[in-house]
């Protein structure tokens, strides 16, 4: 059977139009395996490093806080009368330094999402990521908490493009069944880079002498690596149709795999009707609120993690190293749930609810245990709250696997990310230094309530998706029609052949 000629094909619809029908229905499975392997080998390491840098940038603040930044930039203030001994210390400025990063992400989310939806994804990412790296390096020049506030806002503004771009990339290259595993691969960078970041922070914390402080070196390193990564972003293609690593036969198979799943492919035209549909779609709101509630943990851990661990009776150096077990739990649990979702159909939301339980237990362990020198119970609780990572990973993958239509996919990614920012803004504000003696009750109680809400919403979403699938199965539609409409950029609601996963 002859291979199709793609000499005049410019995008996915052109590729689809050039395919001989008999060829599309009987591609070589060896070629498909080669296609998937190439995508995995090129895109996954790229996104793992990229999202790792996003996470590392945020986590540096926690390490820098225990090694001089709080005093150098006046992030701690005394709120008690001078006669009181010991004085009451407020970390409100540090809380705002953490939260302002996410205000910047909120501000940058929609304009930057519009840019990569409308223009070349790789070139937009290249410019924005290089700017992000430059801003990270400039942190070393900050001399006051006001300067840090401004730097954190603009750092968040530029970084806002990464998670939404990666969600859209995965949904544009992988089938519905494959997406959760692949989303988990790049998302596991949150755990992997927690370990890497803790090791780097520990290494730089041992630097003595030199022209700069230890926390300044951390930001210079992170910024320099980010600039190099930004240059590499230039070669990221818009879709499988323009992927430079495929030959013509592989492009056909890559596109046809998406046709079979009714997921559609990347379209650079902005469709306001799809935005309106997304705004009125209950599952977009449910998944968004789930993400916001789940990420209250992260906002507190990235900004205050080492400081909180140091109150368990550990030194500043030991507090940095205790971030490693937390990161390991995040890393392993994300990959494990991603693997199980690939092997067992419709298990995503069940695993999500299961992973909420260790987080709730961990918060209770920290809150109600005795904080003494090298106390074991609170550090064990701190470690198991790392199960928040698969909760958020499964929320992302469930959201992106259950929408179709290019504009609606971008909206879903942006919507999830808005609530991600909200959760990260709220988390640091729950850390009240005045309640240290009572073990930060607002923080742990707030997280417990949030994760109970996640469980309730997950049950609701499962019911909605199962009921809709059953309704569509009763329609008994012609499968031949499904092949004709696969590349019409229909949304999941417009396309009756689409099936939801949970």
Automatic annotation (TrEMBL):
Report which superkingdom the organism of origin falls in: Eukaryota
Q: Does the keyword Transport apply?
A: yes
As for membrane topology, the entry says:
Multi-pass membrane protein
Q: May I have one GO cellular component term?
A: membrane
Major facilitator superfamily (MFS) profile domain span: 43-470
InterPro entries attached to this UniProt entry:
MFS, MFS_dom, MFS_trans_sf
Major place of residence: membrane
- What keyword terms does UniProt attach to this protein? Membrane, Transmembrane, Transmembrane helix, Transport
Q: Where is the signal peptide?
A: none
Q: Which residues cross the membrane?
A: 42-67, 94-112, 124-147, 153-173, 185-205, 217-236, 284-308, 320-342, 349-367, 379-399, 411-431, 443-465
A single Gene Ontology molecular function, please?
transmembrane transporter activity
UniProt-listed Pfam families: MFS_1
**What is the annotated localization of this protein?**
Membrane
Q: What's the protein here called?
A: Major facilitator superfamily (MFS) profile domain-containing protein
Query: Which source organism does the UniProt entry give?
Result: Endocarpon pusillum (strain Z07020 / HMAS-L-300199) (Lichen-forming fungus)
């Amino acid at each position: 059977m002859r291979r199709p000629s793609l000499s005049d094909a410019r995008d996915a619809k052109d590729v689809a139009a050039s395919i001989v029908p008999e060829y599309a229905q009987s591609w070589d499975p060896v070629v498909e395996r080669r296609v998937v392997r190439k995508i995995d080998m090129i895109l996954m390491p790229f996104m793992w490093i990229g999202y790792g840098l996003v996470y590392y940038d945020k986590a540096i603040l926690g390490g820098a806080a225990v090694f001089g930044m709080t005093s150098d930039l006046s992030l701690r203030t005394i709120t008690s009368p001078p006669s009181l001994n010991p004085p009451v210390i407020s970390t409100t400025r540090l809380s705002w330094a953490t939260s302002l990063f996410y205000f910047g992400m909120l501000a940058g989310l929609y304009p930057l999402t519009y840019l990569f939806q409308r223009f070349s994804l790789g070139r937009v990412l290249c410019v924005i990521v290089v700017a992000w790296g430059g801003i990270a390096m400039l942190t070393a020049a900050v001399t006051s908490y006001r300067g840090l506030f401004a730097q954190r806002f603009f750092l968040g503004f530029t970084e806002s493009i990464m998670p939404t771009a990666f969600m859209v990339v995965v949904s544009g290259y992988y089938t519905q069944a494959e997406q959760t595993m692949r989303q988990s691969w790049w998302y596991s960078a949150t755990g992997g880079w927690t370990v890497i970041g803790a090791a780097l922070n520990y290494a730089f914390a041992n630097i003595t002498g030199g022209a700069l402080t230890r926390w300044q070196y951390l930001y210079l390193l992170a910024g320099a690596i980010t600039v190099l990564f930004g240059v590499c972003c230039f070669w990221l293609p818009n879709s499988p149709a323009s992927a430079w690593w495929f030959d013509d036969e592989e492009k056909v198979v890559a596109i046809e795999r998406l046709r079979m799943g009714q997921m559609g492919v990347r379209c650079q035209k902005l469709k306001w009707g799809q935005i309106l549909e997304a705004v009125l779609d209950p599952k977009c709101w449910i998944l968004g609120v789930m993400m916001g509630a789940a990420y209250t943990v992260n906002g507190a851990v990235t900004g205050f993690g080492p400081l909180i661990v140091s109150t368990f009776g550990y030194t500043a150096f030991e507090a940095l190293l205790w971030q490693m077990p937390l990161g390991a739990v995040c890393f392993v649990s994300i990959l494990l749930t991603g693997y199980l979702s690939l092997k067992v159909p419709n298990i995503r939301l069940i695993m999500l609810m299961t992973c909420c339980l260790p987080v709730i237990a961990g918060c209770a362990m920290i809150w109600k245990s005795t904080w003494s020198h090298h106390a074991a119970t609170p550090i064990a609780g701190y470690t198991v709250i790392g199960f928040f990572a698969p909760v958020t990973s499964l929320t992302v993958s469930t959201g992106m696997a259950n929408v179709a239509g290019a504009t609606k996919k971008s909206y879903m990614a942006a919507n999830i990310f808005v609530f991600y920012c909200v959760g990260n803004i709220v988390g640091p504000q729950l850390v009240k230094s005045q309640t240290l003696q009572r073990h930060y009750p607002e923080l742990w109680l707030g997280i417990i309530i949030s994760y109970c809400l996640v469980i309730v919403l997950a049950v609701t979403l499962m019911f909605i998706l199962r009921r809709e699938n059953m309704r569509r199965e009763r329609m008994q539609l012609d499968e031949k029609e499904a092949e004709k409409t696969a590349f019409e950029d229909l949304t999941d609601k417009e396309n009756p052949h689409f099936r939801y996963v949970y």
